[in-house]
Amino acid sequence: MGAFAKMWSGLQTLILGLASLGSSLSLYTEEPVVSLLSVSYFAERFPAPESEYRISVTNGEDVEANGITSLEETNGMPDKFLILMPSGCARYELPVERDEDAEGFYLMVHPGKKEGKYAYDYKDKADLTLTVGEGQLTIECSVDENDNSPHPSDYCVLDISSLPKDDSLLLVDLCVPATEERSASLWELWVSPEDDSRRAKGTFEDSGR
Question: Which of 6, 51, 121, 151 could be joined to 116 by an S-S link, Cβ 3.0–4.6 Å?
Fold first, then answer.
């Protein structure tokens, strides 16, 4: 990881930590909890488990999202993972609004967790095939089995910048190859003008100033 990526990762952790500080203070005071900071990503986020955006799934199931941390709860992560078995696929229709001034446009996959040796973690990610349109754009994604990164841009990123800027609906297929022996745990799909999912933006709330 380069110095710039490390800086963004550290900043994100600081921002999310400040955002959860208010709820922590409620343990020690009867005063109303003050929201110090609101946090958002540059990406539009869509759940991988069942939602209005998922139109079909084969050879897969939604399971309880075990091992969620307080920061992930603060970030509003879904309460379920989608587990796709080998040869399993999920199809989505994602409504998107692209900034006319943004040069880049990326689709990426946020991994879910699996039960590890000591706790639930992000290791043992299965290979994926990510496709937009009827084979219009596609990529095969694979990471080392010991990779424990939670960041979507470290797992699977498809550059969709070449799509017409007036496209407002993405048809997305997310599949595990039949040759893969592992199942995939999947949490969200992100659509972003940034190719680095670590980048977050924080705003101090008026009540926290």
Answer: 121
Phi, psi dihedral angles at 72 (to 5 degrees): -70, -35
Q: 0.85 exceeded by the pTM?
A: no
Among residues 192, 183, 186, the alpha carbon closest in space to that of 111 is found at 186
Give the end-to-end CA distance of the chain in Å, rounded to a whole number: 34
Cα distance between residue 37 and residue 15, in whole Å: 8
Q: pLDDT digit string (tens) for 40-69? A: 667 899 999 999 999 999 999 999 999 999
Residue with tokens 């208010």: 22
Count CA atoms within 13 Å of residue 43 on its CB side.
26
- Check if the beta carbon of residue 48 is closer than 8 Å to that of residue 82: yes
Contact 137, 158 (CB under 8 A): yes
pLDDT tens digits for range 115-154: 999 999 999 999 999 999 988 899 999 999 999 999 999 9
Phi and psi at residue 84, to the nearest 5°: -105, 125
Judge whether 74 and 155 are in contact, CB under 8 Å. no
Query: If we measure between CA atoms, which residue out of 87, 68, 86 comes closest to residue 77?
Result: 68
